[in-house]
């Protein structure tokens, strides 16, 4: 029997977040139960190795609205987010990280604004970045400035992956051919009516960040190459600049030869060879990024594989704890947090 469509789905991608699960469950359930509407929480376990899966199974025992979507391997934050959003069944879908830096209490305001103004998208926008280091503030400002130049001013500044989508927006995402879209760029590109809710971001509640500098740099590169051909045009202009500089050097060399003041000339030759080599390598690297994306698209490999969805087993005749359930046969006390502690977090 198919369950009725909930009014709200909350998608929470997580990787090795067992230490924050009790706090997350306590705060998120208090907010959602207070809505007085049918809801589901889609927890996407992105191949965790620290007992997050067992912790989620323990939480499900006392939280029937919790739905666990387990990926076969770690596919990355964006892939886990897309998997949860596309499988969510609610009329509105909210995505939020598990670290509680984005306050769950803001979901109520986002839902209220979407209904009052008939909006399909509501972005959670940070009021300030006082909790970030100076370096992170500078790099984040540069990232959003670049994205707004490439995609357009519809990309909200200081808005990450904390957002609300209507069912119409989710279905539009489902129709896109991209296998691993960067949602913070694709969602504004859809052009649906949108609004913003500002909030104060908190410190991470527990655990450590899953987005170090290397991953942030990777996200920036993925954002640029997946949504714009500007780097290719940059390579073209850089090549033209290299040709112009070499032309000037040729004129200088000919004038020096006519004046009879030529010497061995190795410095100018050395500079010219280095400059041309650098330009060629840079252009080849930029072309390689796009060729790699074409190669990946031609392969047609999915960005993620779903190992189990507790909603499927809940709809089966065996019920939510039947033999096909991902919770069946799992030691709920496994991992750093046992079942008793996690169950207590719901009371």
Q: Can you tell me the number of structural domains?
A: 2
> With helices defined by DSSP (H or I, 4 residues minimum), what is the helix count?
12
- What is the CA–CA distance across the termini? 29 Å
CATH homologous superfamily of the largest domain?
A: Spore Coat Polysaccharide Biosynthesis Protein SpsA, Chain A
**CATH domain fold name of the largest domain:** Spore Coat Polysaccharide Biosynthesis Protein SpsA, Chain A
Largest sheet: 8 strands, mixed
**Order of strands across the biggest sheet?**
7-5-6-4-1-2-3-8
Q: Architecture of the largest domain, CATH level 2?
A: Alpha-Beta Complex
CATH class of the largest domain: Alpha Beta
Number of strands: 8
Derived structural class: alpha/beta
Mean pLDDT: 77
Overall body shape = elongated
What Rg is obtained from the alpha carbons, in whole angstroms?
25 Å
Topology order in helix (H) and strand (E) letters: EHEHEHEHEHEHHEHHHEHH
Low-confidence residue ranges: 315-347
- Residue fraction in strands: 5-15%
As a percent range, the share of helical residues equals: 40-55%
């Amino acid at each position: 029997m198919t369950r009725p469509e909930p009014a709200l789905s909350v998608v929470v991608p997580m990787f090795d977040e067992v230490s924050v699960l009790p706090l997350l469950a306590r705060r998120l359930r208090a907010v959602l139960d207070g809505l007085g509407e049918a809801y589901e929480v889609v927890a996407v376990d992105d191949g965790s190795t620290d007992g997050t899966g067992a912790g989620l199974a323990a939480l499900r025992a006392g939280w029937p609205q919790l739905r666990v979507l387990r990926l076969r391997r770690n596919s990355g934050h964006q892939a886990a987010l897309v998997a949860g959003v596309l499988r969510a069944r609610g009329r509105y879908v909210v995505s939020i990280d598990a670290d509680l830096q984005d306050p769950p209490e803001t979901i109520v305001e986002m839902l209220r604004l979407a209904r009052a103004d008939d909006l399909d998208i509501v972005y959670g926008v940070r009021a300030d970045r006082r909790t970030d280091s100076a370096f992170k503030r500078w790099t984040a400002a540069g990232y959003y400035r670049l994205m707004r130049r490439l995609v357009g001013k519809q990309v909200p500044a200081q808005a990450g992956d904390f957002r609300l989508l209507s069912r119409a927006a989710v279905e539009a995402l489902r129709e896109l051919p991209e296998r691993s879209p960067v949602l913070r760029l694709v969602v504004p590109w859809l052009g649906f009516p949108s609004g913003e809710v500002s909030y104060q971001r908190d410190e991470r509640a527990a655990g450590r960040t899953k987005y170090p500098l290397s991953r942030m740099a990777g996200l920036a590169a993925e954002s640029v190459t997946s949504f714009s051909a500007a780097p290719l045009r940059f390579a073209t202009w850089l090549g033209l600049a290299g040709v112009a500089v070499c032309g000037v050097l040729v004129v200088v060399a000919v004038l020096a030869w006519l004046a009879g003041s030529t010497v061995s000339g190795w410095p100018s030759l050395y500079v010219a060879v280095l400059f041309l080599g650098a330009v060629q390598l840079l252009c080849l690297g930029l072309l390689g990024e796009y060729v790699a994306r074409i190669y990946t698209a031609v392969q047609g490999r999915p960005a993620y594989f779903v190992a189990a969805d507790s909603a499927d087993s809940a709809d089966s005749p065996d019920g939510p704890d039947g033999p096909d359930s991902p919770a069946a046969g799992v030691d709920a006390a496994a991992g750093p947090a046992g079942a008793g502690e996690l169950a207590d977090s719901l009371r």
